[in-house]
Amino acid sequence: MADETTSAGRPRGRARRVGGFCLVSALALVLLLGAGVGLVALRLSNGPLQIDGLSRRVAAAVAERIGPGWSIGLRGSSLELDRENALSLRFSGLDIRNPQGDLVVRAPLALVSLDLWGLLRLNVQPRSIEFRETQTTALLHRDGSIAFAASEANHPVDIAPHTPPSVDGVRGTVSPLSAAIASIFGVVLDSGGVVGALDRARVTDARLRLIDEDGHERAVFARVNGLFGRDPVNGTRNFELRLDGPHGEWRFGGTLRDGADGQERSGVITLDDLPVTDLLLLSGQSGMPLTTDLKVSARADVSLTAGRIRTMNAKLHTGVDWSNPIGTPIVAAGNGTVIKAEWDSGYGRRVEIQHLNGYVTTYNHMSRFGRGVSAGTRVRQGQVIGYVGSTGLSTGAHLHYEVIINGHFVDPMKIRVPRGRELDGRLLAEFKRQRDQIEATMQKSKSATTMAQRDAMR
User: Fold this and answer.
1) 3-state DSSP call for residue 257?
2) CA-CA distance, 191 to 166, in Å (whole number)?
3) At 180, is the secondary structure helix, strand, or coil?
4) How far is 322 from 1, CA to CA, in rounded Å?
């Protein structure tokens, strides 16, 4: 009997030892992997790490994402962390050419964010690309369409600009306004283009030069920052551009989508703080004798069918931006009821407050909402309703504040708030006398109530 017990116990003991060894090995592997990742992150926090041999694989992966026939040229790769602390490859040069061999993008610096788990499986998959210090020329055709080309500071016009693929077939058959809007949709949505093929792309410190068909330079934007992204939930493409124009900074963005049949396109385009003088430059009317600091903001709901405007509902509006660090408290402008506290596409986290007399104030791009702030909540003036962030279509931490009166956007900086009447002299003295008399009466009433309560307790 003892021999049987011993022989039966040996396999179980051996299994326990094997299981323990496997567990210890797995833990050791996890610790080694964690230590390796930690050491790499520590090294990258001190600057880029030179990595050779990945350029060819990354170029092939990016070209595959854009489409057949595209080619990518990369130079000088090194490993670093991007602004979101994601693992990225930094290149000292990036060229993208279309299937016809034309140069579409030339970036002196580029940052390609990588999928970490894919990289551990030796599968290079780019998550996003940041193009830095690009030089771009935009050609405004007489038919309204817009063509783009990469350029260099020393040779700004040596490459023929190309319109987006979806616009080529409709040029000359639609109105100039339709062609211009279709060009914007094409840049953002066309899968056969650089931006439309990527889930996320960023443009940093770029330079944009606008010319017309006569070769005249209409405007130069010395600094352009932009963000393009795909919403994984509803499939829309969001974008925001900040442009330093000849007469100040302005913003241009939107949320666009493709229809199921490939012919229908729709979306919302927004324009904020465009100086009228820059608008005249863009429209070719810069020779008009007009000097003004007026700025234009607008929002347009547009739908296109085969490059032609089917419906468009546009309205002017004004708002104001205040730049502050992320986490700065945002307070309510007045007493009211919260009618919205949720994510709102390009506005990011947005709060809308209904006040008296048809006034509504909105607060946008928040990093988070204030405690207890939700639809239906009553708030008081000065109460913290959220915190500054950079959510939605935003290229930097700021608060975008709007005021709406009876459904119409107004300039928050030009609202005249009624002032209360100020008392002085005899009227002020009479007010104080009546106030003191009322307070004395209330004090006597309070004393009488206290004595009555004491008598009742005896």
Assistant:
1) strand
2) 10
3) helix
4) 86
> What single-letter amino acid sits at 72?
I
Fold of 320-414: Glucose Permease (Domain IIA) (2.70.70)
Residues 6+ apart with CB under 8 A from 208: 136, 137, 138, 220, 221, 224, 243
Q: Choose among 193, 226, 190, 188: nearest CA to 208.
A: 226
The predicted pLDDT at position 149 comes to 84
Task: Count Cα atoms within 13 angstroms, Cβ side, for 85.
Answer: 7
- Cβ neighbours for 445, distance < 8 A, ≥ 6 positions apart: none
Q: d(Cα 442, Cα 455) in Å, to the nearest integer?
A: 20
What confidence tier does 448 reach under pLDDT thresholds 50, 70, 90?
low
**Residues in the chain, total:** 458
Residue 167, CA distances (Å) to 145, 239, 261 in order: 7, 19, 17
> 52 or 260, which is more confident?
260
Q: In one letter, which amino acid is 266?
A: S
SS3 328: coil
Predicted model pTM: 0.61
Dihedral of CA atoms 366, 370, 374, 379 in degrees, nearest 10, equals -110
- Tokens 């899968």 map to which residue? 191
CA separation for the pair 187, 167 (Å, rounded): 10
Q: Give the pair of three-digit tokens for residue 124.
A: 């290079």
Judge contact between 431 and 352, C-beta under 8 A.
no
Where do the structural domains in the chain lie, given as residue ranges? 48-132, 135-316, 320-414
- Helix, strand or coil for residue 431? helix
Q: What is the pLDDT of residue 311?
A: 92
Cα–Cα distance list, 431 to 129, 348, 421, 438, 444 (Å): 68, 49, 13, 11, 20
Percent helix, strand and coil across the chain, each to the nearest 5 = 30, 40, 30
| Cα angle, residue 69 at apex, residues 64 and 75 outer, rounded to 5° | 65
Coil, helix or strand for 342?
A: strand
Burial 385-417 (b: 16+ CB within 10 A, else e): bbbbbbbbbbbebbbbbbbbeeeebbeeeeeee
Secondary structure string (H, E, C) spanning 15-82: HHHHHHHHHHHHHHHHHHHHHHHHHHHHHHHCCCEECCCCHHHHHHHHHHHHCCCCEEEEEEEEEEEC
Residue 114, H or E segment: strand 109-114
Which range scores top for mean pLDDT: 66-80, 155-169, 315-329, 373-387?
373-387
Does the CA dihedral 374-379-384-385 come out positive or negative?
Answer: positive
